[in-house]
Write a structure and sequence with these properties.
This protein is α/β, with parallel strands linked by helices and 448 residues long. Helix content is 35%, strand content 17%. Strand 12 and strand 13 form a beta hairpin.
Amino acid sequence: MKSCEVNFDGLVGPTHNYGGLSYGNVASQSNSQQSSNPKEAALQGLAKMKALMEMGFVQGVLAPQERPDVAALRSLGFAGTDAQVIQQAAKQAMPLLVASCSASSMWVANAATVSPSADTADGRVHFTAANLNCKYHRSIEHPTTSRVLGAMFADQKHFAHHAALPAVAQFGDEGAANHTRFCRDYGEAGVEFFVFGRSAFDTRYPAPQKYPARQTLEASQAVARLHGLRDDGVVYAQQNPAVIDAGVFHNDVIAVGNGEVLFYHEDAFLNTDQMLGELQGKLGKLGGNFQSICVPRAQVGVEDAVRSYLFNSQLLSRADGSMLLIVPEECRANERVWQYLQGLTSSGGLIREVKVFDLKQSMQNGGGPACLRLRVALNETELAAVNPGVIMTVPLYDTLTQWVDKHYRDSLRETDLADPQLLLECRTALDELTQILKLGSVYPFQIN
């Protein structure tokens, strides 16, 4: 049965702003308080979706969250009408209002961890929503994320959904941003690669000293158990604490994998040789030929990798067996990174072409091409069972661009978040979006 990997890109929400909420994310911190352009951000993301669709890749879209999250503010003691809650928060605790308005759900690589049916014990595609409990503004996402994913992948014969792990530090889970899968073919059993920043209970693992390690070993192990993965189909690796302290807050900022290939920076991991050997051995037993492409620090330093988001790219397989790398414009603007990429594609290796996309609005908040997409490997039957309303087509692209033009603002500053009208605009837009994407009632304002 033919299988493919579908990229479900996050649609940027109407409250996209630069609140500087993500400690450890260099771009988020350095661009804090700048004026954002939600309309431009959404259109940039849609343009990438359309381009990949036109290249022949199956492309989907994942809806944003309702923001500001008035229910979250109420749980913190603000009361009255929705407008009064927003006004009280703005007056008494502006940072909480900013957090409740974050459009960070656009980075759906953090939405969940996904295991294809070829890997799982019950033969279904498994989803575990990420608790994202390292950052408050992201920790409030998973209830709506679960409902949206449930509406997209509703057929219980083919899809299984798990609630987020306990929202405590020991089980910090950041989803697919720290998860990669290697396989000979998307429809065959593969090896799932979980990268963690620290262990919650085992002191033998070193931890970063400056920035938090968001993913724990224990969370990764729990997800593997929930998904019914075989021991010989899983590899755990620790992220280098030094690169976390350099701004590599997720593994997808320093490495990306696809098919049988891992593209990574020399300083990405601890015990790299042991890890590569385990990946090669386990994939080899499944008939695969694991290959790695290491970017030397002498050619591209960690700082250049973080600033350009070289590794926060999409590594895509083409029909002829070659691979395409989707990178942000910032890679072309960085002389050392661009020189490396030119040499990589001209060497006759696996990665034959690089395509550049302008994702400046997302990049300034710390999210590149890989952050914007959740990968789901599906066979033909499973793809047919996906809600068709979320699969990108030319008519859907046209409808969504018109929807963005109609509902999104051209400029948003922190002071604008205190305007109760923004909540009404967001709810009106999302109510229409659920009809466009055929999601049903997934947002709190539609349910309560």
